[in-house]
């Protein structure tokens, strides 16, 4: 029996449905051939993956520029994408993630562009990618990496989109939430970076145990394939970071707990415990 309190896939389906209309509209305004012509003048690609591997002594931080979410509503009223991004950079983040979905997260490609022109760190485009067209939009706006969510893509789409991302010189962060999804993505060719989302995108429940459980079952395989693992969502304290680092992740993706603090730079330092050094 479906649980009426958490209708399965409801939000994800709604996001994907809306995304299709959005893409159709964007393609009218900015045809793919136009974007392809712009590639030569797009900002140079920075290496997202190597930035995550630089400091082996602690998990690297991907700090997320996030104004709102369907589960939390508005996270920060006086939201200034550039102020937050530059504070993340000063605080010691390795990379940034910029939400570009407008309707559900109040993000934008304009934010991605302006963040690109104000920080040096590699940038992840945090989007619900369902069409390769969006990958070109991300690259021309200055993305260095793109998120692919296994829950909304077929195996064939994942493989094809991964190729497009790599052909454009970027990295793909392939996100999973279940062992079934992890096993699907482990079959992909050229997989380098996997994200384990602690949040269930269908009903928004959070469980840090997700990272632990999936790694306990597939750590060896991930390691032998040389795949870098990122734990995503619901991480608030340096104790949370230690927990997922012990489980075997190389990096963490954190949004809400940093964005909502009045001193974002200090929040990054204390999350990374740089304030104690
Ligand atoms: O704000 P949090 O709980 O620290 O989470 C950040 C990030 O993991 C989350 O925004 C996220 C992870 N995967 C996603 C996919 C789509 C939209 C958002 C997300």
Q: Approximately how much beta-strand content do the residues carry?
A: 15-25%
Which structural class do the helices and strands define? alpha/beta
| CA radius of gyration | 18 Å
The rough form would be described as globular
How many distinct beta strands? 10
> Which small-molecule species are bound to the chains here?
indole-3-glycerol phosphate
CATH superfamily: Aldolase class I
Secondary-structure element series: HHHEEEHEHEHEHEHEHEHEHH
CATH class identity: Alpha Beta
Helix content: 40-55%
Number of separate helices: 12
How many domains make up the coordinates? 1
Defining key terms:
277 residues, alpha/beta, 10 strands, binds indole-3-glycerol phosphate, eight-stranded parallel beta barrel, TIM Barrel
Question: Care to describe what's here?
Answer:
It is a single chain. The model has no long low-confidence stretch (mean pLDDT 95). α2 runs parallel beside α6 (132-140) and α4 (81-91) packs parallel to α12 (264-271). This protein has helices spanning 10-29, 32-38, 48-53, 81-91, 109-118, 132-140, 155-167, 179-185, 209-224, 238-247, 256-259, 264-271; strands spanning 60-65, 68-69, 73-74, 95-99, 123-126, 145-149, 171-176, 193-197, 228-232, 251-254. With 277 residues, the protein is of the alpha/beta class. It contains twelve helices and ten strands. The protein has a single domain (10-276), classed as TIM Barrel (Alpha-Beta Barrel). It is 44% helix and 16% strand. It has an eight-stranded parallel β-barrel, surrounded by seven helices. A two-stranded antiparallel ribbon has the order 2-3. It binds indole-3-glycerol phosphate. Indole-3-glycerol phosphate is lined by residues 64, 66, 126, 149, 175, 197, 232-235, 253-257. Keywords: Amino-acid biosynthesis, Aromatic amino acid biosynthesis, Decarboxylase, Lyase, Tryptophan biosynthesis. It is an enzyme of class 4 (lyase). Residues 12-271 form the Indole-3-glycerol phosphate synthase domain. It catalyses: 1-(2-carboxyphenylamino)-1-deoxy-D-ribulose 5-phosphate + H(+) = (1S,2R)-1-C-(indol-3-yl)glycerol 3-phosphate + CO2 + H2O. Pathway: Amino-acid biosynthesis; L-tryptophan biosynthesis; L-tryptophan from chorismate: step 4/5.
